[in-house]
């Protein structure tokens, strides 16, 4: 956000100021949607996984395998028309959807193995980060557990939890490679969808020129974020190697087995969501995929 704020200032010659509140001092990822909707925050980044209970149209985003993360940009373009409608119900607009990193399986040292099929995690206790992510874990024969990030390292070391299913960005941010140094890299989903949104009233109060400046700054911020992401991945690979761990990349056929085992969740989501959510399901399924025709 600091880079974005700096770019806005530069491009507007200092006429537009974005005040950044770091470390959740203005709002949290869990409350970002509500804060932007109410106007208590003009902009915020928040994981939509936290909001699917209040906004059921968002449920489909958390079904592993419903889209192919290797086609992230194409998927984003496919879902944006309906996402605009969903976010309008929350009085906000999506400005940017950063890459939240591919999902990985990580297991503690006692359970360490290459995860190649659902049978490799059957019976294990895996941390989730949302109800429908937990449903995916259950469909593969494992038991989902909710553990706050601050307690996760100790839980892995004590064996309270055997591992988890999350984005590698989260895994690295909490230095989980120190207690669970071996990971299996999937093409099942991104960790979450966590857009930068802006309050609609605030956005509509800006001139067309001001909006264009912010959108240009978003493009530059996206390029910068991609560079940082690549650097972080290279650092993670080195740190996993230093910790004596390994990275296994699931093959297309192995990813397919997880997608197939999870297929029934799509129809379950159709029942649990609303009309916009069903439209979102269709949009997700319309995007290119190596795993769905």
Protein model, in words:
By secondary structure, the chain is an alpha/beta fold. The protein folds into two domains: 2-99 and 192-224, Bacterial extracellular solute-binding protein, family 7 (D-Maltodextrin-Binding Protein, domain 2, 3-Layer(aba) Sandwich); 102-191 and 235-272, Bacterial extracellular solute-binding protein, family 7 (D-Maltodextrin-Binding Protein, domain 2). Helix content is 44%, strand content 14%. The chain is built from eleven helices and nine strands. The chain has a six-stranded mixed sheet with strand order 5-4-6-3-7-9. It has a three-stranded antiparallel sheet with strand order 1-8-2, with helices on both faces. β4 (125-127), α4 (131-139) and β5 form a beta-alpha-beta unit. The longest helix has 35 residues, at 208-242. The mean pLDDT is 97.
Compute the separation of the termini in Å: 38 Å
Order of helical and strand elements: HHEHEEEHEHEHEEHHEHHH
CATH class of the largest domain: Alpha Beta
| Biggest β-sheet: strands ordered side by side in the sheet | 5-4-6-3-7-9
Q: Using the 3D structure, state the CATH architecture of the largest domain.
A: 3-Layer(aba) Sandwich
Question: Runs with pLDDT <50, length 5+?
Answer: none
* Number of distinct beta strands: 9
How is the CATH topology of the largest domain named? Answer: D-Maltodextrin-Binding Protein, domain 2
Helix content: 40-55%
Structurally, the number of domains stands at 2
Compile the SSE list and pairings.
Layout: H1 2-11, H2 32-38, E1 43-45, H3 72-88, E2 92-96, E3 102-107, E4 125-127, H4 131-139, E5 143-145, H5 149-158, E6 163-167, H6 168-173, E7 182-190, E8 196-199, H7 200-204, H8 208-242, E9 247-249, H9 252-261, H10 264-272, H11 275-286
Parallel strand pairs: 4-5, 4-6, 7-9
Antiparallel strand pairs: 1-8, 2-8, 3-6, 3-7
Helix pairs in contact: 1-8, 3-11
């Amino acid at each position: 956000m600091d880079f974005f704020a700096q770019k806005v200032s530069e491009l507007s010659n200092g006429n537009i100021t974005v005040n950044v509140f770091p470390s959740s001092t203005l709002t949290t990822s869990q409350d970002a949607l509500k804060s932007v909707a109410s106007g208590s925050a003009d902009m915020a980044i928040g994981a939509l996984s936290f909001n699917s209970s209040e906004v059921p149209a968002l449920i489909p985003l958390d079904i592993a395998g419903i889209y192919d993360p290797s086609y992230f940009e194409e998927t984003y373009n496919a879902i944006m028309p309906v996402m605009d409608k969903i976010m309008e119900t929350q009085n906000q607009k999506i400005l940017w959807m950063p890459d939240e990193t591919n999902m990985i399986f990580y297991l503690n040292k006692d359970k360490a193995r290459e995860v190649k099929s659902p049978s490799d995690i059957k019976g294990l206790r895996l941390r989730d980060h949302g109800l429908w992510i937990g449903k995916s874990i259950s469909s593969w024969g494992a038991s989902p557990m909710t553990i706050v990030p601050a307690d996760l390292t100790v839980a892995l070391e004590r064996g309270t939890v055997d591992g988890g299913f999350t984005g590698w960005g989260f895994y690295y941010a909490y230095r989980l490679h120190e207690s669970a140094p071996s990971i299996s890299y999937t093409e099942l989903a991104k960790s979450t969808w966590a857009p930068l949104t802006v309050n609609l009233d605030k956005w509509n109060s800006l001139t067309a020129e001001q909006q264009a400046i912010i959108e240009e700054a978003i493009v530059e911020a996206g390029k910068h974020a991609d560079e940082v992401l690549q650097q972080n991945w290279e650092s993670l690979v080195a740190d996993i190697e230093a910790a004596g761990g390994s990275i296994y990349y699931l093959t297309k056929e192995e990813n397919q087995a997880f997608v197939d085992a999870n297929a029934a969740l799509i129809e379950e989501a159709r029942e649990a969501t609303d009309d916009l959510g069903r439209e979102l399901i269709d949009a997700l399924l319309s995007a290119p995929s190596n795993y769905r025709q």
